[in-house]
Amino acid sequence: MKKILLFSVTLMMLLLCSCGTSNGLTKAEREAQMVQQVQSAVDAQRYTIAVDWMKPLGGMPRHVSSTYQLKVDGNEVDSYLPYVGEAYRLPYGGGKGLNFKGEIRNYTVKRSTSNRYVIEFDVKSDEEAYHYRIDLFTNGKAIIDIIGQDRDAISFDGEMVF
């Protein structure tokens, strides 16, 4: 009987603790904090998006490991993303695909709605030129569309990492 009572009290304590808000913030305060973090990252042109889904053109969406990411750091992009799709011209051995660092050109940011930024830029790797379009939401979620000069387009879903 003592064990059942102890188990019940422990379970109730865990439930009460888990029902509290994190860091003493309400949901609205956490959302406002996220909006501010996203806006600051976009304004500074320094952010990282970890991707968890890829959607190749004409293919099925696929879950990918959490190690894939796109990092924008000032005037440079570090793209470490998988590629599945048709390529029309490749270097011998298959090339690097979407794994490269490059200089950003034609970087633009537009606030299309109250909760979404549209970021576009061009970048050239050693092998190919790409156009990136990022739909970045104020909750930190992101959709990355990439159009390559010699490849089918591909899209990724992910989230900003702070």
* Low-confidence spans: 5-9
Here the CATH topology equals Lipocalin
Query: Could you spell the SSE succession in H and E letters?
Result: HHEEEEEEEEE
What's the CATH first level? Mainly Beta
Number of separate domains: 1
What can be said about the biggest beta sheet? 8 strands, antiparallel, barrel
Strand order of the largest sheet: 1-3-4-5-6-7-8-9
**Which percent range fits the helix content?**
10-25%
Q: What's the tally of helices?
A: 2
Overall pLDDT score: 87
In percent, how much strand structure appears in the residues? over 45%
Structural class determined from secondary elements: alpha+beta
Number of strands: 9
Shape: globular
Please state the second-level CATH architecture.
Beta Barrel
Gyration radius, in Å: 21 Å
Describe this protein's structure.
This protein has 162 residues and is α+β, with helices and mostly antiparallel strands. It has one domain (46-161): Lipocalin (Beta Barrel). The protein is built from 2 helices and 9 strands, in the order ααβββββββββ. The chain has helices spanning 2-19, 27-44; strands at 46-56, 62-63, 69-73, 76-81, 98-113, 116-124, 129-137, 141-148, 154-161. It has an 8-stranded antiparallel beta barrel with strand order 1-3-4-5-6-7-8-9.
Describe, in short, the structure shown.
The chain has helices spanning 2-19, 27-44, and strands at residues 46-56, 62-63, 69-73, 76-81, 98-113, 116-124, 129-137, 141-148, 154-161. It is α+β, with helices and mostly antiparallel strands and 162 residues long. It has a single domain, classed as Beta Barrel (Lipocalin), CATH 2.40.128.410.
